[in-house]
Each structure stands twice: as C-alpha cells, then as structure tokens.
Amino acid sequence: MRENRISRVVDILGEMDMDACVLRGMDNIFYLSGFRGSEGALVVTRGDVLLLTDFRYITHAAEVTKNVTILEIKPKIDILADICRKYDIRKLGFDSLHTTYDTYFRWKESLKETELIPLAQRVENIRAIKEPVEIEAIRKAIGIGTAAFTETFEAIRPGKTEKQVAAELEHAMRRHGADCPSFSTIVASGPRAALPHAEPTDRELREGESVIIDFGVQVDGYCSDETCSFVIGETNGKIQEIFSIVRDAKDLGLASVRKGMPVRDLDMIVRGYIEEKGYGEFFRHGTGHGVGVAVHEAPAVSTQSEGLIEPHMVFTIEPGIYIPHLGGVRLEDMVLIEEDRTTVLTKIRKDMLKIGG
Does the pLDDT of residue 2 top 90, yes or no? Predict the structure, then answer.
C-alpha cells in the first residue's frame, strides 16, 4: 500500500528533475511511512526512504514502518547534509507548506551544494485520492463519532455549559474507540453560534437558542468531521428560516456533486443558493474540504478551487449562515465520490434536531 504512495512521490521527483525530497509535515510522513510523532523528517530518494527522528521514537518507528531506513537525529550532527553527500543530492524538494523559515534558512546554510525546491501541494494532492483501506478507516471514525454524538445529544439539557457538552462528547468518543478527537470540539450556542470556529466557553445553553456542534474522531490515523445544529425548545422564526436554507443548500450540493465536475462549481452551486435567498454575506467560508489523515486536506471546495472532482475523493459539504448577535446554523456531511455515484458517509440526521419544547 505505502509502496505505491512512495512510487508516486518518486514520479514527482522525476517530473521535477529532483534527486530526492525531504518532508517535515507529520501528516505526509504518516501517509508515506506509517510513523507519527512530535519530531521527524522523511527523505525520499529515487531508491530509498529514510526516516529521521530522535531517540524517543526509534523503537516505535521500527515497529510501525516497513522498508524504511531509520536514522537517529543527534545533537551537533547535520544528518540531512550527510544524506545529501552520501546520495549526491543536488536538487532536493521540500514540503514548503510545513517547513518553517528557520528550518529552510538552516538548510540553505548547510546544504551549499544542494538546490532546495518547494514541492507546493504535490504530496497533499496525492493524498486527495483515497485507497480502500483509507476509506474503511474513515468509515470507522465516522461510526465512532456517530455513536458518541448520539449518546451525548440525548443528555443535553438547558443549563449545561458549552464546555461540559464538548467534554462529554470527547469522553464518549474515547469510550467508543477513538484514538483522540480529530480537532478540538466546537460547541457554540445562542449568539456565539454566529462564530464559525467558536471555542466552547462556560456559557450555559438556553431555551430558544440554536446550538452548533462541530466534532470529529481520529482512529487508525484517519479522521472524521461532522457538524450538527439544533435548537433548544421553541426558537424564533429567523433561526428556523436560516436552518431551512442551510439544509436545502447542503442537500442541493449532495444532489449535484459528481465526478468530473470542477471543484469550484460545487461551491458555486451551494453558495449561489444561499445568495439567492438573501444570505450570501453571512456565508463566508468554503463549502467543504477533503478529510483523511488530516481533518483539512485536498480538495478545498471553494471559489478559488482548481481541478476536478475525481473518484475516490472524500470531502465535506458544509454550508453555514452566521448572523451576528443572533446565532447561526452549519450542517456538514462527508461524501465519497465513486465511479457511478456519490455516497454520503455520515449518518446523523440533518433536519432540525430539537431538545425539549
């Protein structure tokens, strides 16, 4: 499996006339080697794969990788310079999205005979097309998230704080088998639901308000991402109106998406519907994003997106409307693009969930 991924990176080396590449982004390192830790780099040459990490991870790296040479990073030894000399690397690619300026500057100083070439998003683009084993891991993460949310939702009552709901949901994730949340759970109620990425606070959930819960699970190295919105008791007509518009926009996106269409067209369809209803200025983020080893990866579904929707992509469709001082609604599903259909992977209902009232 990972051998095929390495082969695709080697193809990139050939296309860009490079001798090797060094990757610092841990999601890329995990995708290509199976290793994940707090420190490491992966060097891919035309014939070898070398994982560089410190003493804390040497044993773990040997357990989780295959056909990878593991080299220990030691103080005062420039291991990357040694590799470049050993392999006569004159042109070295690097994942520029994940390499700090300090690291790049240090490489420039130590690799005098080597040209550094940014890879842009070429490795990330490989990750956009999911293999069957990846799709199965994503389905597993979604299943755990579904069970955890269902359990938590049944216990939500007015008076609980946003922090309490988030903590209960993340605890339920782990009880049901998650390795960890795939990101910090978002719980936003009342006027705070107008903040797309609000952090949970001590604010109590109240009657007559909308609540957004955005959550995800990571298991076996793969993520899920799903957003549900609901109301507590009877709410005002404006919240009900925007809920219906967001739901219909999401459903329109699900009905429209297909392989071969430009990615930006999907965004235009969903965004256009919300604009027609008079709420375009209140929908300011992209329509969706890929999900895999990272919770946000290619493809980005936005007005700036390039490229086509391809079979075996997994991404979200998540329109939202956020009205300052009132509240907001976001609904998010994950979809799998197949050769002859689109499958909605997430299972939680997205009609107007209601607590009490």
Answer: no
> CA-to-CA distance for 49 and 43, rounded, in angstroms?
6
Whole-number Cα distances in Å, 315 to 65, 144, 266, 289: 27, 18, 12, 5
The C-alpha atoms of residue 328 and residue 201 are separated, in whole angstroms, by: 17
Other residues' Cβ atoms within 10 Å of the Cβ of residue 348: 17
Q: Which residues contact 44 (CB under 8 A, 6 or more apart)?
A: 6, 9, 10, 13, 20, 21, 23, 32
User: By the 8 A CB rule, do 344 and 337 touch?
Assistant: no
**In angstroms, rounded to a whole number, what is the distance separating the alpha carbons of residues 216 and 149?**
10
| Cα-to-chain-centroid distance, residue 167 | 21
Q: Which helix (H) or strand (E) holds 133?
A: helix 132-153
Helix, strand, or coil here: 319?
Answer: coil
Both tokens of 267, joined, read: 């965004």
C-alpha–C-alpha distance, residues 181 and 304, integer Å? 29
pLDDT of residue 257: 97
Query: From CA 198, how far away is CA 134, in angstroms rounded?
Result: 30
pTM above 0.70, yes or no: yes
